[in-house]
Give the backbone structure.
Amino acid sequence: MKKILILLIIIMAPVLSIYAHPHVNVNSYAHFYFDKSGLMGMYVQWVFDPLYSSQILYECDLDSNGEFSGEELAEVEDYYFSQLDQYNYYLDLAVNKRKVPLPEPVNFNAQVDHDDEVVIFTFYLPLKQEFAPGGTRLMVDFVDPSNYTAFTCVQRSLSLNGETEKVKDVVINRLGSIEFTFEER
Amino acid sequence: MKSLFSGLLIIVSLFFAGITVYAQAPPPPPAPAVPSISTVEKGVGNGSEQVKVKKGAVALFNELQSRGTYFIKRKMDILRDGFNLKTFLIISFFSLLYGVLHTLGPGHGKLIIVSFFMRDTTSRADAFSLSVIISLIHASGAVFLAVLFKTLLSTVKGLDHLRIQYGFTLFSGILVFILGIVYMIRKIKGIDKHYRKDEPAAAGEIEKLARWKRNLFIGFSIGIVPCPLSLTIMMLSIIYGIFWVGITSVLFLTLAMVAVLYALSVYTIKSRDFVFHESESGRETGIKHHIHLGFEYFGNSALILLGVYFILKGWSSLV
């Protein structure tokens, strides 16, 4: 009977791998900006893997100079970024453990890192979270529900710009989430 | 003359009226305050203290896969500039190893295969033929799609590539769902074939051609979704003008997938044989009999549920 049960467990193991595996890998970074009132917003950076970057370059770098001109940048935004609104731009935001709607990204930019031959997307999210007594807990989660794109948070510490804030209880999950509490200094 | 003057007067009036209306239109909302970011920072800025960094098995798998793609890209860059035997052999061998890791990871129809082989009327010959069929269709679909994307479908860009792939997922889900339903109905009606341990005896019950058709249908249902990894490698090889490198890499990825799927299928058959061998002699009673039935119904149910899952996944991504 024990043997049968062990065999059952081993055979069921593939159930754990029912979900599709990712085919695009993105290293994600988040840079947080504070002012006198609180958290202004954050810049998000996505560094794509070289295979996917090659595809973006091939389709959008029309003059093949390794840079995105104005028109080419518009193409990149149209074909590779704007359509992500249906997936909430692969971002979940929670303030004090409650999900909040994602503000519309602005200031989109795409650059090419010539050393690694990778494409980097940058965009800004105007979060506008004011300081609150006792602090505010923010969670940023990079996630593709279909699991086609895998996000990795490669930061080992927070990136902050400001002089009025104090942060604590920082948790960075390599699987693509950043959590911390901020309050007024 | 009078009518011409009147027409001109109307046009000029409309022009000035239009300017007046436009001038009174509400101004566009102000752009949000956006701090400048002059340089791309790959590292981090002023850090904070006491940061807890969490890792896990999934993150490790993703990172390994990411490093694998970096490695393949670098080797293809070398081959783009000129043939190098050493690099060619490295990329071929690496594709074989990477294919094993890739296939062992999530996806690739492993659960469907296990569900199918838990049923009776399957043998090692089925295991081999299914592994080959699934892997070949999975890879050749990717090659075919890559050629299409670079030729007839060259206007399809960006995330529309993904939508086409999810269309295949939806189609695969429908086929797997139908398969599960058919098997379940046959099981409930009692017209399903009974278990036979010996392969030749089992083959005698179903004509070999019907068996081959069944395997082809199942293999097609599972393998029809093009392999995204093979697709990406093929598209890059077409961009670089080294189509033959992409084909070789995909071939080794496919061989790896055949090996993994065959090993999994044979293991499932052996496990099933171990559990059910007593049924031949009619000695299967009590809990073993229920486990036997449970296996069969689980296999059929899993096919149905997986079919539904893929249909929903494909549909939600397309809409």
